[in-house]
Amino acid sequence: MILIDGKKVAAEMKQEIAAKVLELKEKGGKTPHLAAVLVGHDGGSETYVAYKIKDCEAVGFKSSLVRYEDDVTEEELLSKVQELNEDTDIDGFIVQLPLPGHISEQKVIEAIDPKKDVDGFHPENVGRMVIGLPSFVSATPFGIVELLKRYNIETNGKNCVIVGRSNIVGRPLSVLLSQKAINATVTVAHSRTQNLEEVCRNADILVAAIGVPEFVKKNMVKEGAVVIDVGTTRVKSDQTKSGWKLKGDVLFDEVASKCSYITPVPGGVGPMTRVSLLHNTLLAATGKIY
Fold this sequence. Notes:
39% of the residues lie in helices and 18% in strands. The chain contains ten helices and eleven strands. It has a six-stranded parallel beta sheet. Helix 7 (170-178) links the parallel strand 5 and strand 6 (185-189). The N and C termini lie far apart (41 Å).
C-alpha cells in the first residue's frame, strides 16, 4: 500500500506556482490577486479561508478578505460580488460556502464573473469543462486528477466509481475522468444506488465523496484498488485540543491494507484543493482561460 501524500504534492505545486509568479513579476506583470468573501463564523470556513490567505503569501500573491456577519442581506452580498467583478486589481475571488439559509448560493455563484470564478462553480465554467473547452475547473476535482497524474496511477480504461454526485466534486470529477486525456470508465453512485457495495467493489479507482464519516468499509473495496477519500467531516473528540477531529468518508484503518494507493484524511485531497485554487488564480492573472 502506497500512501498518496497530498501535502507533499501541494508543496511541490506551490513551489512551481511561486516560480511562475516570480517570473511574471520580473517581466513587469502584475502580482496575482485572490480575494475571499466570508459570511459568518463557521469553524471550517474560518480555518479554510485562513489557510488560503497563508497560501497566497507563500507563493507571492496578493490576497484580500471581505467579512460579513450571518445577517448580511442577499442584496448586500450580491452588491459586493459585483464590486469585486469590476475591481481590475482582483484576478479571482471566491465566496466561501456554505452561506446562511436566507441567501441563495446559486444566485451568488451565478453573479460571479466567470473570468474571475476561480472556484470553477459558475455554470459557464462547468459547461466549458463538460465540452472540453479551457475553463476554471473546481478545485477538488482538479486536485484529485493532479494526484493521479503525479503518482503515475494508470487511468486508461480503468473502472472508476465515484460515490457522491455533488456539483462541487462528484459531477465535475466524473466528467474530468471520462475525458480523452484520462480515459476512465466512470460510474457515479449515490445513496439511491442499488447494490452499492457490489458497485464499489468493481472499482479500480474508488472516490469517496458522500460526506458520511467512515462510510466506505473493507467489504466495499476490491483488492489492489486505488482509494481517494474526499471526506472532511468534523466530529467531536476529547483527544484533541480543538475538541474535534477530521474524519474521512473511508474507514482508513480497515481499508488501507487492501489498497494499492490511498489518500489519508487529513493530508490527502485537502491540501490539493487549496493549491488548485492558487493554480486557477494564476491562470486568471495571466489570461490563460478567457
